[in-house]
Design goal:
single chain; Growth Hormone, Chain: A; 21 helices
Length: about 425
């Protein structure tokens, strides 16, 4: 088992797993990070507003969240390999179907509903479950590599979509991007993606019975103090920070920045998300995870304060983009790491799925709420203030987690007692 190996031995034995899982995780973000180039062509083709175009993404995120917990149970019992491979095929095929859109809003929502069903099987739970099952000593860095798939997606999908649209139109863009990405990643995942409880005839590592691993039951985990705090952190982050990142260019343009300059400053977010992802993984393997998480979740306070003080100041804009990028690159890493620590691996899939559901719901409602705030007040400032408050609470909640309690230090029974006591103490 991975827990018996040193960091070096884990990477020597399973170096390929985080890399392949990163491609799977990138697939789960295909429908989000590739949509930018399609906005204008769809508006021109169907005379839609941007709200009508983006309604599909919100629909998919909302529907996917409803099935997060059942997916977690499935991963715990069937292993992540079968679920992930099946999901990648479905996601790429359903994404390609967007090229058949007729211009009817009902048809558009229906197509995104199909994507939502497919997306269930490629949620973060699938890829992190496999990596967590193989890595213990170097779990932080392994998760960082896995979740860097999102950073790769931010860099690759918009460029690929833009080129395909210019060559084949928006219909061809959807079709060829979906099919092309599927043909690229499926063979790699087929040969390289396998968790500790996924059986393979040539694998000499014993197949692990998930229920024999230390950890809380689903009922114990769902009512624990750490779950409450991680839920707050997940939902508050997705609702506020993700929304600000999606609205970052409009925020800058409202302050008088030209379109190209705003896009250039916003690109800093993508670069810093990669830096944040890898540095967070490095730090999680060396320092208490709750402290690293508290710092990462407090960084948006700096960005919001700078934008509130003077959104037109170029230096402030660059710093804000950097800190939001660093946070964006560390959020899921921190949540997944702390979930494994405080819940154990027995029911990790189901318990982490609860947190994924919170992230999905925040992503579904946050950007829309930010737009509604702007429509009502003519400014994003009230939303920035709300972000300071909510992310401050999230950071404080993570900081209050007790570093000496968890399945990397104590038995399941002791961790359960500590978790129950912490819940009674309140947050």
């Amino acid at each position: 088992m991975a827990a018996q190996l040193t960091k070096l031995q884990e990477w020597q034995a399973y170096w390929f797993l985080p890399l392949t899982a990163a491609l799977g995780y990138a697939t789960s973000t295909l429908f989000v990070y590739s949509m930018g180039p399609f906005f204008e062509p769809l508006q021109e083709a169907f005379n839609w507003s941007r709200a009508q175009v983006s309604m599909g993404v919100s629909t998919a995120a909302l529907l996917t969240s409803l099935f997060s917990i059942p997916l977690g149970f499935l991963v715990d019992r069937s292993g992540p390999r079968k679920v992930g491979l099946f999901g990648v095929v479905l996601v790429c095929a359903s994404y390609a179907l967007l090229g058949t859109a007729t211009g009817s809003q009902a048809n558009w929502i229906l197509l995104w509903g199909v994507i939502a069903i497919a997306m269930v099987a490629t949620q973060t739970t699938v890829w992190t479950s496999a990596v967590n099952s193989r890595f213990d000593a170097s779990r932080g860095m392994a998760l960082a590599v896995t979740l860097s798939g999102a950073s790769v997606a931010i860099s690759v999908f918009p460029v690929a979509a833009t080129w395909l649209i210019s060559e084949f139109g928006w219909r061809g863009g959807f079709t060829y991007l979906g099919i092309g990405w599927g043909l690229l990643v499926f063979p790699i995942l087929f040969f390289g993606f396998r968790g500790a409880n996924d059986r393979h005839k040539n694998d000499t590592t014993p197949v692990i019975d998930q229920q024999s691993l230390p950890g809380l039951t689903f009922k114990q985990g769902i009512t624990s103090g750490p779950m409450v705090k991680l839920l707050l952190a997940s939902s508050f982050f997705a609702f506020t920070a993700v929304a600000i990142v999606m609205h970052f260019v409009p925020i800058l343009k409202d302050s008088g920045v030209a379109s190209m300059q705003a896009a250039g400053i916003a690109s800093i977010i993508g670069v810093c998300s990669i830096i944040g992802r890898l540095s967070t993984g490095f730090l999680l393997d060396r320092f208490p995870g709750h402290i690293i998480g508290a710092i990462a979740f407090a960084m948006p306070l700096i960005g919001c304060a700078l934008l509130i003080a003077d959104a037109g100041n170029t230096t402030y804009q660059v710093i804000a983009a950097a800190v939001f990028g660093l946070t964006l690159g560390s959020d899921v890493d921190v949540i997944a790491y702390l979930a494994a620590k405080f819940f154990g691996m027995k029911n990790f899939g189901a318990l982490f799925a609860v947190l994924v559901m919170a992230l999905s719901l925040g992503t579904a409602f946050g950007p829309t709420s930010a737009g509604m705030v702007y429509d009502k007040f003519g400014s994003y400032e009230p939303f920035l203030i709300a972000t300071v408050i909510m992310m401050g609470i999230a950071s404080a909640g993570l900081l209050s987690l007790r570093s000496d309690k968890g399945f990397d230090h104590v038995t399941a029974e002791a961790a359960l007692e500590a978790s129950a006591a912490e819940f009674k103490e309140g947050i």
